[in-house]
Amino acid sequence: MILVLRALGVGDLATAVPALRALRAGHPDRELVLAAPSWLDPLVELVGGVDRVLPVSGLDPLEWSGPPPEIAVNLHGRGPRSHELLRATGHGRLLAFRCPPAGHPDGPAWDDAEHEVRRWCRLLDWYGLPADPDDLALARPAPDRVPVGVTVLHPGTKVPAKRWSPARFAALARHLTRHGHRVVVTGSATELGVAEQVARWAGLPATAVLAGRTGLADLAALVAHARLVVSGDTGVAHLATGYGIPSVVLFGPVPPSRWGPPPDRPRHRALWAGMEDYPEWNGVGVHPTMAALPVDQVLAEVDEVERAVRDDGAVAAQ
Asked: Could you give the C-alpha distances from 86 to 94, 108, 190, 299, in angstroms and in order?
């Protein structure tokens, strides 16, 4: 049996998809258990290849009662806490980044600047399990309870510094609505206020606010059948990548080179103002790199991803 630790969120799980599939392909006959928050279960099903989820809350001790796993895999971090959490299961072998303080001198060295997808692929490559960083596709759920063909604006993120202005999201929504988009605003229950603010300022009906009304399964279905997604650097952006839905992702202060969509996919565009002109920040509110992204630039990128869709359609029709 293989136990994999990835006790994080939607984007974190989505970026670990190629690594999970490499483990599945390398050990097709072993049970694959993923230690992750239970609310991610619907997304785990869309990833495929995982036999069961072991519910966890952050890096709290694992409730492990079975025999020691033959292989434990740390797809969570560099250690030592995550390494030690897996060691407590009595595993036979640990696949993880090098961490001498945790008694793990094996494994490759950590690279802070590395893209999150490639980081975990490199880890498994090091242990002889080839992983394809482009293998990001998710199973497409049926849109049983969600609208189809909508443009999804997702103004919230867990990190305040990474949020684009609600006023700019509203301006974007107004423009897109005038040009034939059916706009909806998504978010968690805690982001309902900002979603309602965006809709109100944009003149959208109350029914356009889906924040707090969609569980993860419905959110995945909504994105999978959307026309367009515009969001900050958060889980919804990774769902758009997994489904090949045109997306514009707004980055700051973390660059897209670490968390962005694959740069060779024209349907996905990442915007980042860079850090060179914003060396100082007091740590309060929105980071200056986000505030530096104007609505016009986002609209230009929307035009680019929609042009890519039209070009794909023209090629397919030939």
From this structure: 8, 18, 32, 46
pTM score over 0.85: yes
Residue with tokens 């356009």: 208
pLDDT of residue 314: 64
| Helix pair 166-178, 295-317: axis angle to 10 deg | 40
pLDDT band at 299 (very low <50, low <70, confident <90, very high): very high
Distances (CA, A) of 196 to 134, 166, 231: 36, 10, 16
- Does pLDDT of 318 surpass 60? no
What is the per-residue pLDDT across 21-66, written as a single tens digit (0 to 9) for each? 999 999 999 999 999 999 999 999 999 999 999 999 988 989 888 8
Length of the chain: 318
